[in-house]
Amino acid sequence: MLKSFQARLIMFVLVLLALVQLGTALAVLSSLKEDNYKQGVHSIDVSRNVFDLFLEARAEQLTKGVEILTSDFGFKQAVATRETGTIRSVLQNHGARINADISVLVSPQGELITATQELNISNTVAELVFAARRSGGSSISTMIAFDGRAYQLVLVPIKAPNVVAWVGMAFLLDQALAEQIKNVTGLDVSFVYEVDDAHTLSGGSTLPLEEKETLFKEIGSIKSILKSPVFSNDEKYLSLGVDLGVSNQWGIIHLPYGPWLQSYNNTRNQLVLIFTGALALALLFGVALARNMTQPISRLVDYAKQIGQGGNKEKISAPDMVGEFGVLSHTMKTMQDSIINREDEMTYRASHDQLTGLFNQSAVEQYLSDELPKEQGGLVLVNIRHFKDINNMLGFDVGSSLLSKVAERLQKWGHDANMLARLSGDKFLLIFGRPITQQDCSNLKCLFSEEFEVEAGSGIRLDISIAVLPFEHATNSVNSAMRRLDIVADEARESSELCVFYEVGQDENHRRQLTIIRDLPAALEGGQLFVVYQPKIGLAGDDCHEAEALIRWIHPELGFLPPDEFISLLEHAGSIQQLTKWVLNTVLSQLSKWWVQGHEVRVAVNLSAHDLLDEQLPFIVSEALQANRLPTRALALEVTESAVMKDRVKVINVLKALQEMGIHLAIDDFGTGQSSLAYLRELPVNEVKIDRAFIQFIDTNKGDEFITKATIELSHSLGFQVTAEGAENAEGTALLRQYHCDKIQGYFFSKPLVAEEFFKWREAFHRR
């Protein structure tokens, strides 16, 4: 029977028995605990009723004590004659006999005649007296608060025969009263009030001092225990609040829960003993049964552990078994074979490129983490230029074939490399333990000068860029080394040199660039960027009604940033449009102030290629002009030739839309881009700005003078205005006047100025 696996399921039954016992014990304990709690709640509810009855009985007793005083003829006569001294003496003596804390005499209208203490409860007493008069009551018993403490107040009228006054006795709800109630109910009682807005409780209590302070802190807001009792954190007390009918004054009844817990704990201990005994008997029986059953399982477990450890690639002999365990043993042997094969495959895949069979980036990073820091040798990154175009033209199959052939050539050339890897689609990395020289780069270039055969009789020559990172600059971090290699690779792709070696400082420059890109949003909000205005002088009227807006950036860490540096970075990072919108809004805001003052100045804002590719640009410009209540003639936009050539069709459509709005458009840096005069007639622009490269030395360089003159004449013939940038001396300015240039911009007249200084300069220029 025991050889059958089904018979061995008896152990499952034993475990099930233990679970049933455990469930039964938990149910009994839960029911007992709930029953204890209900009994505690019932006990505290009874105590609350006793509490209320005690206060009512005390009120009746106090009322009778006060009525004895009000029936005294001598006291009535003193009240009738208003002998204040006699009244106060009687109130003090009688109050002392009935243990009153405060005694008062009140007029029939509720006015306070005299009291044994200075009181501020006149309004409260008056309301009580009026209420008693309306209801026809003969006496009043209520709770009041005075100086933050609760008092039980009894008011009894003095009749002769009409009511001539009211005598009141107030009794403090203090610890002594709490002790009296405790003697009746057998439970601890507290009279409390909140001393601040943080729900900190204070007052008299029959609790021990330490337990009182702890319990008051745990209760916090008394409102949480007015409806139902709540346990303290250690479940030592069950507390219920009692509303005394006075603002910020409560009573609390504390039920010591220790006896209830002790009863519960005793029952729990008994159940634990019963459960433990039953479980021990079941365990003894199970051990005897399991000895026979666990032998084959133990052998299979040992076998599985040896497979799971996986340190030894040699196959482990499977245990020879019969029955269901024999099937399991055979299955585990098959599983072992599959695991060994799969581990080999996964290990290879994890460290190798599937297309070329070379190591991959993961293997490179693991190798570098073991080798760095290192002084000898370095990393050589080979990047195939324009490989994406090859894929697009010839197809991915041809591209994959080319990569495999590149890998074969690199393996032959770099036979002494410590590692050869393919990092991504068109990047190959060689790691050498020897110094890398320019000759190595030259040999590598020659390796790729031979064509790669694509098809029979058809070949293709690949162009590569080479980046070298010597290990001495690789630092201790793999991430840092790979980042520096990428920096050199980016430079190598843009360079025409044979290869590019990492130089000290390139990493810092890269970080500087990242800092500039990262800090733009904060710079725009923090006022680091500002706009300056360079005047444009109209030669016809010798006046200044135009200016060009230029950006300046004072970085808190990097200092002054040249516009050429951060604008090109922001263009590459895709953040230039954010900067353009800020400049546009800043300039139009300033223009709005000038135009309101009657100074109709037109300011030109420069646009980038990214701005011109945005078909929403005309709408953005129109909204900005409307928001600042400016006409379209207040704004000019300047674009470069290179920006137009990014996407001529789309850019020209955007420029046409802007021109139709009435925006003045100008081609900036004319003569330095790709279009020259060939495309000028196609562009919807109003003005041509000759680049400073032709203007700066026009008075000393005849070639520049000839080009400038020809450009002015041709632009005028096409109907364009002409602005010359970079005029720095009187001689050059005179030549531009001679050739009928429309406007001049340069340091000869003024450098770029902030708005206030530009306005002052313009006023002075017109007054000269």
Question: How is the secondary structure organized here?
Answer:
Elements (H helix, E strand, L loop, with lengths): L9 H61 L2 H8 L3 H14 L4 E5 L5 E4 L6 H14 L4 E7 L2 E11 L3 E10 L2 H11 L2 E7 L6 E5 L3 H11 L10 E2 L5 E10 L2 E8 L1 H52 L13 H29 L9 H11 L6 E7 L2 H8 L1 H18 L5 E6 L2 E6 L5 H10 L4 E4 L2 E3 L3 E7 L7 H17 L5 E2 L4 H21 L2 E10 L4 E13 L3 E3 L1 H11 L2 H21 L5 E5 L2 H4 L4 H11 L7 E6 H4 L3 H14 L2 E7 L16 E4 L1 H4 L6 H16 L3 E5 L4 H9 L4 E3 L9 H13 L1
Parallel strand pairs: 16-17, 19-21, 21-22, 22-23, 23-24, 24-25, 25-26
Antiparallel strand pairs: 1-2, 1-5, 3-4, 4-5, 6-7, 6-10, 8-9, 9-10, 11-13, 11-16, 12-13, 14-15, 18-19, 18-26, 19-20
Helix pairs in contact: 1-7, 7-8, 10-11, 16-18, 18-20
Task: Offer a concise description of the structure.
By secondary structure, the protein is an alpha+beta fold.
Total count of helical runs of at least 4 residues: 24
Question: What coarse outline follows from CA principal-axis ratios?
Answer: flat
Top-tier CATH class of the domain at 519-767: Alpha Beta
Tell me the distance between the termini: 122 Å
Q: What CATH architecture of the domain at 519-767 would you give?
A: Alpha-Beta Barrel
Q: Got a strand count?
A: 26
The overall pLDDT, averaged over residues, is 79
Structural class: alpha+beta
CATH superfamily of the domain at 519-767: EAL domain
pLDDT below 50 for ≥5 consecutive residues: which ranges? Answer: none
Strand adjacency order, main sheet: 18-19-21-22-23-24-25-26
Reported for the largest beta sheet, the result is: 8 strands, mixed, barrel
Beta percentage is 15-25%
| Estimated helix fraction | 40-55%
Over the alpha carbons, how many angstroms does the gyration radius reach? 49 Å
CATH level-3 fold name of the domain at 519-767:
TIM Barrel
